[in-house]
Design brief:
single chain; Alpha-Beta Plaits; 2 domains; 4-stranded antiparallel sheet; 29% strand; binds adenosine-5'-triphosphate
Amino acid sequence: MKITVNAAAKLNLFLDILRRLDNGYHSLFMIMQSVNLYDTVEVSVTLSGKTAVSCSDPSLPSDERNIAFKAAEVFFSRAGIENPGVKIDITKRIPHAAGLAGGSADAAAVLYALNRLFDCRLSETELLNAGAAVGADVPFCLVGGTCLAQNTGDVLSVLPSAPDVRFVLAKPLCSVSTKEAYEAFDECGKISHPDCTGALFCAARGDFHGLLGLAGNVFEQVVEVPDRVRIKTVMRQKGCSCCQMSGSGPTVFGVFDSEKKAAGCAEELKSFIGEVFVCSPVKSGLTEL
Ligand code: ATP
């Protein structure tokens, strides 16, 4: 039997780092949004006794370094099942190390698919806890839609859905290491924090435009991204209602109230940016095909 899942990329509509925790992790305050840019993950049971991963992007590892592999290990250990052998095939469309949680989305898809293949051995809460053990954004990727994510990303609250806007995503050619971005934050003495209370007040009431007015991402103060200013200038000229970096970057997104404006912006960005996508918000992180 095989389960095939589309795993959605995420954007950070809001991202503040409240403080560094004693364990080295960071206390976060993030408003996350799933968008219809998907990796496709196929999971099937083999009788090889091992986990085998294949990935359409040759620049990513297809062994135990792939986060999908780690997700399978965590699943079997938490479910108390001996691994009979599973095959995981990943078709990548979400750029990696881009601030779009591409790896976390794949891990969430593996946890979900294995739980389906093995008779839902883990409850929803156990699945979320397993996700948190795999990576900070995995719990959100399991749930998706529009959520507030707190603590290290493992405390989730579902928020009213975003309206049917268009997001233009511009991914410059460079990659950003999330670990290095946090190190840069830790070394930076002076950070100006966005208005978490105000943003949550708007988001919880479904006031999406109010939320965009207060949007912010503290990583923009510590991570250098080539062309960020130029990307934002184009997005503003093309009529976006907000533009900012997602996660630790380098992807910058703009929010548009019409398909036409978004398409015009994407067209212009393509003349100097490697990868450009026009996306819509979606209400779940995983879709079984
Ligand atoms: P986040 O927004 O959660 O910080 P990101 O988009 O910045 O995520 P990912 O795409 O999740 O970063 O991947 C980060 C690193 O993880 C990559 O550099 C890659 O080497 C490694 N990795 C391992 N498995 C995968 C996978 N299945 N997909 C993408 N990256 C993977």
